[in-house]
Amino acid sequence: MLAAPRGRAIRMIAFAWPRSGNLNLIHIPFPGGELMKKAITFVGIAALLMTTSCSGVRHSSKTFAAHGESLRIFGYAIPSDDQQAAFDKVPAGATITNVSASPADWTSFTGFFGNLFAFNGTTIGGTK
What we know:
Shape: flat
Strand content: 25-35%
Helix content: 25-40%
Low-confidence stretches: 7-15
Distance between the termini: 72 Å
């Protein structure tokens, strides 16, 4: 590039710029048409909703940690309430030492926007 005459460098830059004026340099056509787009969108949304129904518990010899997650859309928990899912996983006879939950009320700023659309979670820890 250092030995090239000035006109050649300008032509190379002009060649690299899109001539149509469209700045979308990457255009990947979607095979299958409109029906395929709708099917993939539906499968993606269904997979997202299924991954929100997670709850579980981890045990050690003396402690446990239970968790539950849900997706909230306009106040509805999908598939179920995250706090109830986490409390269902607490071992019988255990002592709960801490609870951490996402706000899901309509009276606070974070709770209001969390109820419109958010992933909520509850974690419960304690000893056996």
